[in-house]
Amino acid sequence: MKVPSHGLGWPSWIGVVAKDLDAQRRFYRDVLGFAELASGPDWVHFDFGNGNLFELIRRRDVPEYDSVRCQVGYTVEDIEASRAKLVDLGVQIVSEIKGDAEIDGRWCYFRDPEGNVFELKERRRR
Question: In this predicted structure, what is the pLDDT of residue 40?
């Protein structure tokens, strides 16, 4: 697979922003049989192996989770360089870089021309 010049890799994360987190959690865990990995008050992680993650996120009033929708997270090797390239190309910024490179990796969000939110994800350094 040819990696685009901006460094985006195949999605390593897919998220669903949920209005009713508990109902969605039961559906994905109990009906579809996804293996729950971890959770918090506003999120649930399901393990898809090889560092790939399916996440449910409670809808709330922050730009990256402000409406019910699916989102995709693209793996990048260097989040600063990839983010800068997208900014230079005029891609709409949703958030600054968040997270910690040593603990859980780092991520940031953008919008495509139709308003869909997507994530850049730099995995945790090992």
Answer: 96
Distance, CA of 35 to CA of 28 (rounded, Å): 9
What backbone torsions phi and psi does residue 125 show, to the nearest 5 degrees? Answer: -75, 140
Residue 10 has pLDDT above 50, yes or no: yes
- 3-state SS class at 77: coil
Check whether 80 has a pLDDT greater than 90. yes
Rounded to the nearest 10 degrees, how much is the dihedral formed by the CA atoms of 110, 116, 117, 121?
Answer: -80
Closest CA to 26 of 47, 56, 6, 49: 56
Please check whether the domain covering 11-122 is classified as CATH 2.30.30.100.
no
Domain boundary assignment for the chain: 11-122
The stretch 84-110 carries a mean pLDDT of: 92
Neighbouring residues of 110: CB distance < 8 A, sequence distance ≥ 6: 86, 91, 92, 93, 94, 117, 118, 119, 120
